[in-house]
Amino acid sequence: MDIVDSSQLVRRSRLRDAPPVLCIQVQRVQFDMATMRAFKVNSHLRLHERISLTPYRHFDGAAAAHSRRHELQQRLKAVNENLRMLQVPVQTAANTSDGAPVSVVSALERVQAFMTGVHRWADLDAAQPLLADLPESTAALTQQAAAVSSQVSEMAAALSQARQRWEHERTQARSELDAIYADVPDDDMAYTLHAVFIHSGQTPEFGHYWVYIRDYDREKNLVRWLKFNDSNVSVVDASEIFRDAPRPGEESANPYYLMFVRSEDLDATADLGV
Q1: Which one of 52, 57, 77, 267 is at 20 to 30 Å from 100 when CA atoms are compared?
Q2: Which of 101, 103, 107 lies closest to 87 in space, CA to CA?
Q3: Which residues contact 172 (CB under 8 A, 6 or more apart)?
Q4: Where are the beta strands (DSSP E) in 14-147?
């Protein structure tokens, strides 16, 4: 147990032994105390073909790497939340012509284009008689359109720059995390991903299931991934499992159960012969 300050303690746990087969259940189902209903967390989970539990065996040299990994994960979580907030709809579908929600950046761009159009219209000679018949306060608003358009444009540009900065930070954090995860010691704590169970559905009450299983053809010395989807079995590219983000339209299809085999025991796994 480490003392952070006079009011905070950090408790650490470590592993003594590792099993031949490591099963990890992803906590997808949560409970909302406000609605008193269960809901599914559809956050994307980036998978790695090989992992190591060695950092969780020691408190010494591995502690620094573990601390850095935790720091990067927290930073990545914060950046992803910032990027997610840029996509939060600020208009309902009923208020848009195409029926789609509008994010804050898109909304600002639309407002900027609209106010620019109002300013240009107000400068037309044909618009002057109409403006002359409007109340003075209303006519004054058209004169302010250019200033509003400029301010909104500055805000949209600032958010766009922030998005680029956050995307750059996300890329850097992922790159450093990948380097840490790639450092897998060849010992009895090294594991290779063997099976990935997928649930597709917005809620935990219903959905569709399938599983990816790693298969090793000893005769051809070939590793391949098989997809078992009901009665259909197909060979898929590894990129379908080890992707950085979900496919568009498949955000609710995600892993909920993982099986890893200790790397030194891979030869004991059966050739599926499919």
Answers
A1: 77
A2: 103
A3: none
A4: 21-25, 29-32, 37-40, 50-52, 89-91, 102-103
User: Is a pLDDT exceeding 90 seen at residue 241?
Assistant: yes
User: Collapsing DSSP states into helix, strand and coil, what is residue 271?
Assistant: coil
Task: Concatenate the DSSP letters of all residues of 181-248 into one string.
Answer: HH---SSTTEEEEEEEEEEESSSTTS-EEEEEEEEEETTTTEEEEEEEETTEEEEE-GGGTS-SSPPT
- Contact present, 87 and 245 (Cβ < 8 Å): no
Q: What is the mean pLDDT of the chain?
A: 80
pLDDT at 143 over 80: no
Tell me if the pTM is above 0.70.
Answer: no
Cβ(223)–Cβ(216) below 8 Å: yes
Section 25-52 average pLDDT: 89
Q: Where are the beta strands (DSSP E) in 53-166?
A: 89-91, 102-103
